[in-house]
Design goal:
globular; 4-stranded mixed beta sheet; 189 residues
Length: 189
């Protein structure tokens, strides 16, 4: 089972002994190994695996929200972002520092093309994704991911909405109430 946006590799806690994660940040890759995930430090736009290697893919990519902030607060107030969780700037190309926009969409589409390549025919693709609110407007991140995967040839199978408490402070206190777990399959052809 592949996770191309592995982060700290927690997929290893769910998929015992068969999880492979790809992560740009060495510190998070080390944590993934502690969770039982075979971690590869690398860029998922260029997956180091042969065609049709994996039976399944489970991932939760970044959402392009305020977790991508990478500034330091001038007033000393606390920040919760990928940069602040890691304790340094993220590696160039890490989607954790990309707000919703064309660069975010281009990188994810490129990674999904690679995912299609390395998945076996009939493989399942499980995506955990969420919209977010910016300037009072819901940003349709989940629909974009769904449309992109379908346009690449994946078949949409199902969706389950999962209520989540989320962080509710500062500029982030207004949140969408749930994340989506969406299942796709790679055609048998």
């Amino acid at each position: 089972v592949l996770d191309p946006f592995a982060g700290t590799g927690r997929i290893g806690r769910v998929v015992d002994g068969t999880a492979v994660g790809v992560e740009l940040e060495i510190e998070w890759a080390v944590q993934g190994r502690e969770h039982g995930t075979l971690m590869v430090v690398g860029n998922s736009m260029h997956l180091p695996f042969a065609d049709k290697t994996f039976d399944a893919l489970v991932t939760s990519p970044t959402y392009g929200n305020r977790m991508a902030d990478h500034h330091n607060a001038k007033d000393g107030s606390p920040r919760r972002s990928y940069k602040h969780l890691l304790g340094r700037d993220l590696t160039k190309g890490n989607t954790g520092q990309m707000h919703w926009g064309q660069e975010y969409r281009d990188v994810h589409a490129s990674v999904y093309e690679e995912c299609l390549r390395v998945l076996k025919p009939g493989a399942q693709f499980v995506l955990n994704i969420s919209d977010h609110i910016r300037a009072g407007v819901v940003i349709p991140v989940s629909q974009w991911h769904t449309d992109t995967l379908v346009s690449l040839g994946f078949v949409f199978v199902s969706n389950v909405d999962v209520e989540t408490p989320r962080l509710r402070f500062g500029a982030n206190r207004k949140r969408v109430p749930h994340e989506h777990v969406r299942v796709f399959s790679k055609p048998l052809r």
